[in-house]
Amino acid sequence: MEILIIGSGGREHALAWKIAQSPMVKKIFCAPGNPGIAEIAECVDIGVENIEGLYSFALKQKIDLTVVGPEDPLVAGIVDRFNEGNLTIFGPNKRASIIEGSKVFSKNLMKKHGIPTADFKVFEDSTQAKKHVSMCEFPLIVKVDGLAKGKGVFVCKTLEEANKCTDDILENKIFGPAGDKVIIEEFLSGEEVSILALTDGITILPLSSVQDHKAVNDGDKGPNTGGMGAYSPVPIITRELQFYIEENILVPIVHAMKRENRPYKGVLYAGLMITSTGPKVLEFNARFGDPETQVLLMRMKTDLVPLLLSTATNTLENIEIEWNKGVSICVVMTSKGYPDKYEKGFEISGLETVRELDNVQVLHAGTATKDGKIVTNGGRVLGVTAIGKDIQEAQKTVYRAIQNITFEGAHYRRDIGAKAMYRKS
Ligand code: AMP
Ligand code: GLY
């Protein structure tokens, strides 16, 4: 088979790394890819937003399966375009991707179907929004309706902050039309967990649990990012809780999407808060998580390709997933300043040393090649991913490996996996 992966981050490098191990695969292409991916796939210079370009390439190259990484092409309808041309593609179509594309849609759907989520109200008018905020308890959450590259959620501690936030979104339009509506939402406390599931719209196949670390600094301090690191499995997710999530969140949401005439096919990502009164949904995403995918695929024993194909072709029933024993962990190295402004172009050294280490993979995200050297080229630069028999061993391995890698202004969290240790002791 020939496979096309769309995207250029750590998630796509992890997908390429895992897909390359499949005996079913003859060749992998990645559009646009990155220097890490280029070691195992042929990178083609087509942007993720260029749906016609990607379609023409897949058609001409007779690609057997296309796997979409990021949300933007999904929400823009890439799956619909490929389906029209009878090309096999993994991911939800445009109507189903709205589950990530509009938070207002997904909140209303959860409310309608009794799926546990934070209480909320939706506003288009800033005066109305501020009137509501003045009656709320703090902290509270303000969310932009549309896609905002992970930057559209604000935890507001004071009335002033919340008012400024609603004004910035609804009046000053800092998110453009994505911010035509805001959600004012109850603040939930607890531990965050990501539960991803493959579904063909009928069968639901949950993957193992993962915990992401969104805040940029240790101790969950500082602004939220796309994700600073993750580990899997998560001890807080007991078998009972896993069943509870399946029955009360995954099954009803897939059913609800069908009832709305938006049948969902692909990977469904539920971002959950495990509160004292049970799991509640923070958001749904229509794609694999980043860095969740890195740790999940490091633990996955089963060949990924039949899983993706079965999802895309409605044959997921009777498929089981086997996981390697132990714990996997990913620590993301970022450019100084991320998630705000940062500089690019700094040489990365030590990658060759880490290549020799057992149980470790470096998965590239924002990297580029310049004069034959690998340099930084994004906020999240790379993710060092390791596997060990338990969280202690995995953590030791990943942090030892990371010490070999240097670039100017490199930043990473030192406490990825700490919550799992705390729970175990
Ligand atoms: P979302 O994109 O909706 O998942 O939000 C991004 C991040 O904001 C989440 O991963 C949480 O860390 C935080 N967040 C979102 N909604 C809430 C909430 N209701 N209560 C507390 N934190 C939240
Ligand atoms: N790691 C969070 C996300 O992929 O949305």
UniProtKB/TrEMBL annotation:
<keyword id="KW-0479">Metal-binding</keyword>
<dbReference type="InterPro" id="IPR011054">
    <property type="entry name" value="Rudment_hybrid_motif"/>
</dbReference>
<dbReference type="Pfam" id="PF01071">
    <property type="entry name" value="GARS_A"/>
</dbReference>
<dbReference type="InterPro" id="IPR037123">
    <property type="entry name" value="PRibGlycinamide_synth_C_sf"/>
</dbReference>
<dbReference type="InterPro" id="IPR020562">
    <property type="entry name" value="PRibGlycinamide_synth_N"/>
</dbReference>
<dbReference type="GO" id="GO:0006189">
    <property type="term" value="P:'de novo' IMP biosynthetic process"/>
</dbReference>
<dbReference type="InterPro" id="IPR020560">
    <property type="entry name" value="PRibGlycinamide_synth_C-dom"/>
</dbReference>
<dbReference type="GO" id="GO:0009113">
    <property type="term" value="P:purine nucleobase biosynthetic process"/>
</dbReference>
<keyword id="KW-0067">ATP-binding</keyword>
<dbReference type="InterPro" id="IPR011761">
    <property type="entry name" value="ATP-grasp"/>
</dbReference>
<dbReference type="InterPro" id="IPR000115">
    <property type="entry name" value="PRibGlycinamide_synth"/>
</dbReference>
<comment type="similarity">
    <text>Belongs to the GARS family.</text>
</comment>
<dbReference type="Pfam" id="PF02843">
    <property type="entry name" value="GARS_C"/>
</dbReference>
<dbReference type="InterPro" id="IPR020559">
    <property type="entry name" value="PRibGlycinamide_synth_CS"/>
</dbReference>
<dbReference type="GO" id="GO:0004637">
    <property type="term" value="F:phosphoribosylamine-glycine ligase activity"/>
</dbReference>
<comment type="pathway">
    <text>Purine metabolism; IMP biosynthesis via de novo pathway; N(1)-(5-phospho-D-ribosyl)glycinamide from 5-phospho-alpha-D-ribose 1-diphosphate: step 2/2.</text>
</comment>
<dbReference type="GO" id="GO:0005524">
    <property type="term" value="F:ATP binding"/>
</dbReference>
<keyword id="KW-0464">Manganese</keyword>
<keyword id="KW-0547">Nucleotide-binding</keyword>
<dbReference type="Pfam" id="PF02844">
    <property type="entry name" value="GARS_N"/>
</dbReference>
<dbReference type="InterPro" id="IPR013815">
    <property type="entry name" value="ATP_grasp_subdomain_1"/>
</dbReference>
<keyword id="KW-0436">Ligase</keyword>
<feature type="domain" description="ATP-grasp">
    <location>
        <begin position="107"/>
        <end position="313"/>
    </location>
</feature>
<keyword id="KW-0658">Purine biosynthesis</keyword>
<dbReference type="InterPro" id="IPR020561">
    <property type="entry name" value="PRibGlycinamid_synth_ATP-grasp"/>
</dbReference>
<dbReference type="GO" id="GO:0046872">
    <property type="term" value="F:metal ion binding"/>
</dbReference>
<dbReference type="InterPro" id="IPR016185">
    <property type="entry name" value="PreATP-grasp_dom_sf"/>
</dbReference>
<protein>
    <recommendedName>
        <fullName>Phosphoribosylamine--glycine ligase</fullName>
        <ecNumber>6.3.4.13</ecNumber>
    </recommendedName>
</protein>
